[in-house]
């Protein structure tokens, strides 16, 4: 059997570093809780505003085309700046980047809750999404450089990412509850949580997260890569209103292609690239990012469909919808402390296909929707399957996307998977909206609306199927490798090494 040498030369010196079996210190738990709170808020904001949109539009007198930017503004800032956020965490210090971005997030949340102008509200949402683009990869890379790869990191990442999954799942639930009070509550609720997390972060975040990485600044890569992502998200979002075949949309897509080509050329030639393209030679990382793009995109599309269906067709109130979607979020939240052990036992190669399959079946079951759908017969089975699928999929895909990556590139790996998630959210949601609008022909009757929901749901289901196929290929490749090499789970040697590496660090 090949030997494995613990990479102690790449691991920051810290007495807080845990092993796979040693109990974690209260300070370490405190740091993890702070990072989880930040990710929960980042994910929550992606979906929480959805139910509040009609109230916002009525209160601020916003048109439908303007109102969509309350959601799109956040996604634009989040998805467009994630790569830059991940690289900034590696180069400027993860702790510093996390603290500054979390403070900006709290301020932008407060602004969003008190503003009365639609344009300023959208600007605050963009600023909030931009700050999340820095907190999310910084938090994830703090975890992956604090916990050694193997059981300790799997446990920490499963708790961390399940909190993120809970944010995505509970966003519509909390939105329904808060909107029943006042739509401004959906903006103001994150403020005290972010402030409390910031105060504790100053005390508990590990000292090694101060450290800056080696390397220069890829200014041209940052400009072209960020501009390409921003323009891509902007183009697909605007295409819903200006049309996909218009000169504006086509011209924007051509500009995106030019920027991406320039970015790839720069990354191949610069000494210190923003994205080291060789990271994608790691097949597991490439598959994890592809799967995150597809599955999270399908979930964003489904959330949009079910919110419209429950409110417009079944005439549910915001509060009813919040409780109706609660089972999925509750399952995800309850699984937070158990996913680490499950990942250790079964591995991401098995959990990713299972989670993807559960989500696919949930979408397929919802194709039975009709003008008189019921909670028990239609909504509950899909919510339970989505809760199970999301609980298995989301932590596993984040672990798969960062395993085997050097410490100095953990910010990059974290930024990549978060970028895949957010760009997937934006792109699949834009296409889903276009299909729904085309299917309903702009009609408002229950019959017209159902004619739009069904093809949109078929699209969501097909996207999820593509994600399932990628995870199935990954599981097959893992099984073949296990047959060629010694049939020992890939995390066992890390468990053995984690104690030795810890002694070296301490």
TrEMBL record:
It comes from the Bacteria. GO terms for molecular function: transmembrane transporter activity. The chain crosses the membrane at residues 28-54, 66-85, 97-115, 127-147, 159-181, 187-205, 217-236, 242-266, 287-310, 316-337, 349-369, 375-394, 415-436, 456-477. Keywords: Antibiotic resistance, Cell membrane, Membrane, Transmembrane, Transmembrane helix, Transport. It is a multi-pass membrane protein. Residues 1-21 are annotated as: Disordered. The keyword Transport applies. Its main location: membrane. The keyword Cell membrane applies. This is MFS transporter. It comes from Kitasatospora acidiphila.
């Amino acid at each position: 059997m090949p030997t494995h040498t613990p990479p102690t030369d790449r691991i920051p010196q810290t007495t807080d570093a845990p092993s796979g079996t040693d109990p974690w210190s209260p300070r370490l738990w405190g740091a993890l809780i702070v990072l989880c709170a930040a990710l929960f808020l980042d994910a929550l904001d992606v979906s929480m505003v959805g139910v509040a949109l009609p109230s916002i539009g009525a209160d601020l007198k916003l048109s439908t085309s303007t109102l969509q930017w309350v959601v799109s503004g956040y996604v634009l800032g989040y998805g467009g700046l994630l790569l830059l956020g991940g690289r900034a965490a590696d180069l400027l210090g993860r702790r510093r980047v996390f603290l500054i971005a979390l403070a900006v997030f709290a301020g932008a949340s407060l602004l969003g809750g008190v503003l009365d102008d639609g344009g300023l509200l959208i600007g605050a949402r963009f600023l909030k999404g931009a700050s999340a683009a820095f907190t999310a990869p910084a938090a994830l890379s703090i975890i992956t450089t604090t916990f050694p790869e193997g059981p300790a990191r799997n446990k920490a990442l499963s708790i961390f990412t399940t909190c993120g999954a809970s944010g995505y799942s509970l966003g519509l639930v909390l939105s329904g509850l808060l909107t029943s009070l006042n739509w401004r509550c959906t903006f103001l609720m994150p403020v005290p949580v972010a402030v409390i997390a910031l105060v504790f972060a100053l005390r508990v975040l590990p000292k090694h997260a101060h450290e800056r990485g080696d390397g220069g600044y890829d200014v041209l890569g940052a400009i072209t890569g960020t501009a390409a992502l921003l323009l891509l998200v902007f183009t697909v979002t605007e295409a819903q209103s200006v049309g996909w075949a218009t000169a504006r949309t086509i011209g924007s897509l051509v500009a995106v292609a030019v920027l991406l080509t320039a970015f790839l050329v720069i990354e191949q030639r610069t000494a210190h690239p923003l994205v080291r393209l060789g990271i994608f030679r790691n097949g597991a990382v490439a598959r994890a990012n592809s799967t995150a793009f597809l599955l999270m995109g399908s979930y964003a599309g489904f959330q949009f469909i079910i919110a419209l269906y429950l409110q417009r067709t079944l005439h549910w109130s915001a509060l009813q919808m919040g409780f109706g979607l609660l089972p999925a979020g509750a399952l995800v939240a309850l699984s937070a402390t158990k996913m680490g052990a499950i990942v250790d036992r079964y591995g991401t190669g098995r959990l990713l296909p299972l989670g993807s399959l559960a989500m696919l079946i949930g979408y397929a079951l919802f194709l039975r929707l009709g003008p008189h759908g019921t909670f028990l017969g239609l909504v509950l089975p899909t919510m339970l399957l989505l809760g199970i699928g999301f609980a298995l999929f989301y932590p596993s895909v984040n672990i798969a996307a960062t395993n085997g990556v050097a410490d100095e590139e953990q910010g990059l790996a974290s930024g990549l998977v978060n970028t895949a998630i957010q760009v997937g959210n934006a792109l699949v949601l834009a296409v889903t909206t276009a299909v729904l609008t085309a299917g309903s022909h702009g009609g408002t009757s229950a019959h017209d609306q159902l004619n739009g929901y069904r093809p949109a749901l078929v699209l969501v289901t097909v996207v999820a199927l593509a994600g399932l196929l990628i995870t199935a290929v990954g599981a097959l490749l893992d099984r073949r490798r296990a047959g060629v090499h010694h049939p020992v789970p890939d995390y066992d040697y890390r468990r053995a090494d984690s104690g030795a590496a810890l002694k070296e660090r301490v």
